[in-house]
Amino acid sequence: MHAVLLGAEQEAIEELVRIGHSVTVLYVAHDRVVLEGCRDLTTYCAFLPSFDRPELAWAALVHLGVADKVDVVIPGHEFAVTTAAILNDILGLQKRMDPAVALAGRDKPLQKSLWQRHQVPTARYRVFAEKPTSEAALRRGLGDLTPPYVVKPTADGGSHLVYRVDTVEELFRRLSADTELETCMVEEWQSGDEWHFDGVVADGRIESFMVSRDATPAIETKTGSPFRSIALPAKQYPELYEEARAFAESCRSALGGECGAFHLEVFGEPGRFVAGELGWRPAGGLISVSALHSIGVSLWAAHARAHVGADVTQPEFEPTGVFGFVCLPVKSGFRNGVTRADLEGLPGVRHLRMKVRPGEVMKEMKTSSIAVAWAVIEGDDVEHCERRVEDAIRRVAEMHEAKSTP
Known about the structure:
The protein is of the alpha+beta class. The chain is 33% helix and 23% strand. It is built from 13 helices and 16 strands. It has helices at residues 10-18, 32-36, 54-64, 81-90, 99-104, 108-117, 135-142, 168-177, 238-255, 287-295, 299-307, 340-344, 382-403, and strands at residues 2-6, 22-27, 44-47, 72-75, 125-128, 149-152, 163-165, 184-188, 194-202, 205-214, 228-231, 259-267, 274-279, 322-328, 349-354, 373-379. The strands form 3 sheets. An 8-stranded antiparallel β-sheet has the order 13-12-9-10-11-14-16-15, sandwiched between helices. The chain has a 4-stranded parallel β-sheet with strand order 3-2-1-4, with helices on both faces. The chain has a 4-stranded antiparallel β-sheet with strand order 5-8-6-7, sandwiched between helices. Helix 1 packs across helix 11 (299-307). The longest helix has 22 residues, at 382-403. The chain starts with a strand and ends with a helix.
């Protein structure tokens, strides 16, 4: 089988080749570093300026001369999900996901409307197809929604352009000042803990599943608190896993997803979970690596296997400890002085991916994925892992003070 992967995900590429498939990768600018390490495994590669335009991906396959040789197109990035579904449809390939189902995993208001229709708890919301021209128009559009509010794009990722506002007046000022939020969704703020449920679906069944609790709400990453989450061991939390899995199944079923990995963000606590957002792809960052250590499944490898029809049954697995994923902090505007060796020496680090090389200027924390490096950290139990994650954040901040320069 010849598979086209939209996005350079090394785990997916290696797994496809390992089980006997050839791979073409269509990639965007931020994929280049990853592709450097696995280009020799690919049959063809082509650059795309964006995953958001299906005609560009289709044209690239035509230019490569493989458009009539492709068996399946697999999304390897959040922004590529609908493009992959459309290409599978256009090329007459076996559809693992209908374009309408793909859209339900990308458009936030659409998925919330489907959840409401199927009585899945989710935040109340309103959509603004164009920016309100007055505060009075904004009030009319909000209807009976009550503050505080969360405003966000209808389709984006990584908490980009997501803000909490406490009043209608503040919301109107935010929308008026932000030129990127011409179209948006406003929803009611949800209190309680934040979670993410990650798994793999094959033939409409959840085959692999992991529950993680966020130590930092994603929206707080914009105020300097790095994102981190802890994967909870299934054997220690059986009742939680049973309820979370059933809730994830209700969310999946309402949207119609039958194949591939999913990443579901959830608010609240057991007994009153509220669906936040769902994406038809593995979670970002190193959450897939955390899953490999926690449940014995590489989410990217399983995602690729599901799309080519290979078995994705979760193996029997006993983790060595408890694992957390953390975005290690930056010092915005400074040149990074922290090295890979510095970070690999932190207690409990089991996997590391540098995001800012020494000497490069660190960006402002505008999204949840901004970091000097991503790390997976192991602890003996949940509390020990949480302490090690917090300690790593503190130590890296101290390293920046000592080693990073203006």
